[in-house]
Write the structure tokens for this entry.
Amino acid sequence: MPEIEVVVAHAERTTLRLGEMFLKIDADQTRAEVEVEAMRTAPIPTPEVLWHKPPVLALAALPGTALGRLGEPSPASPAAWTAAGAAARALHEAPLPPWHSRQNSDPAARLASECSWLLANDVLPADLIVLNREIAQAALRPSTPVFIHGDLQLDHVFVDGDELTGVLDWSEAGQGDAMFDLAILTLGHPEHLDDVIAGYGSGVDLDVIRGYWSLRSLTAIQWLMEHGFDPYLPGCEIDVLKSAR
């Protein structure tokens, strides 16, 4: 009998692994419904949905291993990163889903609020917050919406050798900015941005990607700290902000 492994656990959702099956328990059923529909329509490999009985979604494990982890060197080959870029392009060229990604919900207001919180709680030096807030402005420009994953972290992308085997965690998918996906994929791993672009092709705006690196890091710190994660770990969000200097 396989043991139960806790993959992620916090107040909003929990993911458990039991052998080759993952059980996702989510307090917000809308996220699970979005995830199921996004995986059904995405033109790239995704986990098989075994069953869905709210509040639990059961998914089959993907073959291969994650592209990497934030804060750690990626073990994946440059070709695997290029394959991830090609998969992002295929997704972004797919027909739009009828709903918007949650990542689109007033990023300017959220940025202002989170920066105020960081300053009020003395989490980061004021000059570092100001610098990264200026860089983040590039990501706030209007964009033509495409089908985005919405949370394309490198540990959500699985590869086997140089081949992409699947992408998981689609609860933030919807209409959104293509550069957001590319930025989240390469957050903390700028050394692989060229590999991703090689697979993705034309239309990449480097200033916008750098803007999203700052925007994502600034707006994630409070949530991470409140849910038991450490943005101060080497290579993670605070190091990303410091690297902008």
About this structure: The mean pLDDT is 95. Residues 63-242 form a domain with the Aminoglycoside 3'-phosphotransferase; Chain: A, domain 2 fold (CATH 3.90.1200.10). The chain has eight helices and ten strands. The first strand starts at residue 4 and ends at 9.
